[in-house]
Design goal:
The structure is a single chain. With 908 residues, this protein is an alpha+beta fold. The protein has 33 helices and 25 strands. The chain has three domains: 337 residues, Kinesin (3-Layer(aba) Sandwich); 211 residues, no CATH class; 197 residues, no CATH class. The chain is 47% helix and 13% strand. A hairpin with a 4-residue loop joins strand 3 and strand 4. Helix 3 packs across helix 5, helix 8 runs parallel beside helix 10 and helix 12 runs antiparallel to helix 18. The longest helix has 47 residues. The relative contact order is 0.08. It binds adenosine-5'-triphosphate.
Amino acid sequence: MGAIGEDELAKWEKMAGIGDEERILVSVRVRPLNSIEISRNDPVDWECINNTSIIHRNGISDRTLPLSTYSYDRVFGQECTTRQVYEDAAKGVVLSVINGINSSIFAYGQTSSGKTYTMTGITEYSVSDIYDYIEKHEEREFVMKFSAIEIYNEAVRDLLSSDPSPLRLLDDPERGTIVDKLTEETLRDREHLKELLSVCEAQRQIGETSLNEMSSRSHQILRLTIESTARQFFGGENFSSLAASVNFVDLAGSERASQALSAGTRLKEGCHINRSLLTLGTVIRKLSKGRNGHIPYRDSKLTRILQSSLGGNGRTAIICTMSPARSHIEQSRNTLLFATCAKEVATSAQVNVVMSDKALVRHLQKELARLESELRSPNSAPKSSNHSEAIKERDARITKMEKEIKQLIEQRDLAQSRLDEMLLATREWDQVSQHSTSNAQNAYDDVISISENSGMGHQSQDFSVISFESSFGSQNCKEIQLEQSKTQEEEEVHSVSSKYNAELVHDDHQKTSEKSRDEYGDFDELCKEVKCIEMEDNKRINLLLTDETEFLVPLRSVDFTEIEQQQEVQVRDQGQYLIEKVNESSPFEELKNLKTNEEEVPPVKSATMVLSRSMSCRATLMNNSCSNSPTFIDKIEPSPYVKERRQSALEFNIELENFQEPKSKYNEIPKTVSEDDITSISGFVDGIKAMAQIHCQEKERTISEDIGKKKTVKDVCLQAVISPCESPSRWPIEFEKKQQEIIELWHVCNVSLIHRTYFFLLFKGDPADSIYLEVEQRRLSFLKNTINYNNNTSTDNKQQITLASSMKNLRREREMLSRQMQKRMTTMEREELYSKWGISLESKRRRLQLAKKLWSETNNTEHVKESATIVAKLIGLLEPEHALKEMFGLSFAPQLTHRRSFSWKNAK
Ligand SMILES: Nc1ncnc2c1ncn2[C@@H]1O[C@H](COP(=O)(O)OP(=O)(O)OP(=O)(O)O)[C@@H](O)[C@H]1O
């Protein structure tokens, strides 16, 4: 037994009543009526007739009640203080932990019945008493550790970590269910513990329900582990310690959806809460009947984690809280029934003694046995030689493939330069095609999708957007897939057989190409702007374009005649042959597989083949090119990709989850944060474009209805946009006003801080930026309405943005930024900021505190500027003004030069 003598242990056991079977200590606390109950004159139906009994006033006449009087270990009326509750219903159980006995205090009850109120007080008093005890017992050395979790929607989360990802539960043969990778802080003093408790409070999921403004939406378990050793033996060779934990369990409140008026997120939370409480109730009910038969601990994470506290070898106290109001009668009865069952559950407390010397010896013995068996194993030696051979073989394959890849990249680059030359040469045909610009199709001159469909695509209005980075080589290429129609066999044969070499191209092909150039005009522009490819067949050609490209929002498809399609494709085929060869080569794939066993390679997107042209918002808003045919647009079913983009436009925060510290892909080339930062640029640009599109469509519909389709969409859109050119002197004031409105809306909608930063740094008052501001403002108003609508609507759609989801995303972003601070700022820089932003250098989680302050003061211009600068630094954005515009080549500004439009059908 080591240093703790038998006598001493016996004394403790006697003191704690060890060895005897004991029951869970069950109390009931009735809170006073709250203001809502008072305001609706809710009568008080419950009365505590003495320290142990409570009756329902109408109980005698109410035959549905199993008992009119309910008795428990202790009952606390409305006038009782939390201190009293602690002293009589928790203290004894809590302090068992000092004697090496595991203990748990639960608060159970309906939502808004006072669980958190009670548990907060009890935790505070417990901590104070434990520390007082420690201070008085200097003869013992105490080590205290603290951990905290919450179970929210059946996911376990570490409340001491900023990482919101769920934790796994593991089954340990000795310790039972344990939470994997849970933070456990060793406590310095009581102040340290208080700090950690406030961190937990801040991190816990809270939401507003109609019954409780600050309803806890999760089960919270705070765990304090105390290990103590007699000082005279501490650090000696053969010492033993007492080690036990006390759990403070604040359960989420049971609720009736109709009473709590739950909807959407609240309803979903309520379902999870009720389900886990139901399991808890079942476990308690079964335990109350003895431990025979199956106890469904594993049916919920809550009961799994608390298994040892429920009917195990620890001590447990349950405090059931309830409202005295008549309106909650049903819930209060349920609470009392739960309490009645809990009273019957027996536990058998045991002292936990850790014999460190023996444990160590056991561990060493085990390790020795393992090593011995490994040495004895006949397979071990050959295994390792096989292994090194396999590594050598793999290395050789990698080297070989790297060589092949190098060659293929050279070939690809050669093909690319040839293609560029060819594209350059086509410019001379521009003029010819300009005659064909004034027809009904001229709205769609920004993006042209190419395909070669013999007929199927003519009537089709399906479309898809393909735009993704090729993942190899040093260039950022946009890869566009083309698929050829089986029905155009001649053309296919031609395209596959013609290697890229202008001199060797077949005469017929040349003729066709020339014809196509004549007919299609600006082929260079066409090629550069191709983004949307729609296909309906199975032969793939990959085309790599190195030009910067835009993120596009396709609006419609345009018909093509068969001959046009054939000619167009033939021109391209010449350049694509080698590229296709390069891209289809398997070594890339193989190398990826070799170098990254688990990392996913982005899938190549393909689409259905329809010859189509699409247009970006630039066209929608600024060019004389919006469709005059609202019905046509209305008919179009957006592809899933487009839907996804629209979603992101409205809910760009969602994409934040993908923000990660740059990770090298299989080619091990490190990326900058901004490349990965999909929230920022693409989210923003897509957001603006999708919103502009939606806006145009809405306007278009309105106009169609109101004035009989006399105005074009473009007219309407432009009308709505402020024009700094008309009143340049007013523009700076107008700009400031708009900017401020946008900043307010960002705040209200919990918009991503990275998005705000990009926008803020990019648009600084240039008159040409007015359109961006206008669109952003409308988009945000739309977002605000969407959030309000979703918040008031019952839905299970996870994709829908609600206030809670946007807040959650923003919180995650702040956590991510706080992590970035460590990586991208020196200690001195951080400390300067802490001082400047009023964060104590001694306080905990200073980085998170700083991140929480970013962009928080919407009316303080200096604060906003500084926030933008900090965020820019954290995400590695050095020169946003230049970088962004160049990156996207975007310009919503009115264009001075006349843009030529294409007419595909009517070209002669
Ligand atoms: N005994 C009490 N005396 C005075 N006020 C109380 C008492 N119990 C609870 N309250 C008040 O009632 C409100 C709801 O309490 P609390 O948040 O603790 O309920 P809850 O049971 O934890 O609810 P939920 O399950 O929704 O989290 C709080 O404003 C709290 O201050």
